[in-house]
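Q: Could you fold this chain for me?
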Amino acid sequence: MDDDAQAPFIDPESDYPCCWFCPALRFPRAGFLVADRPSRDWPFDAADGFRYTVDTRTPVCVHPGRVGLEPERTARTYGDPPLPDLEPGGPGTPGRLRRWWPRRPGRPGMPAHR
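A: Sure. Below is the predicted structure, expressed as structure tokens.
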């Protein structure tokens, strides 16, 4: 009988502090990647509870300290898109700021409605 299966990188019966769903418990070292942290680059798959790379669907461990390995991949830093420039006064009233509250009679400096 040919048994080409290799043992997992971390023995599930050990007291190693890795997560219960870590790919190191399922695959040999060549079967998974190690990343520095969770990222959109290797999203969580809710169907089976693991993280995979987007392009090749390779399992990814995101806790290198728990498995005792150096990270191979570094997550990109995503930032929020910049806010649009707000022109004072909006369209049609250059140079004046628009008020968002209604004018009420009796306020100083404002004409009363008649």
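A (continued): Strands lie at 33-34, 44-45, 50-51, 60-61.
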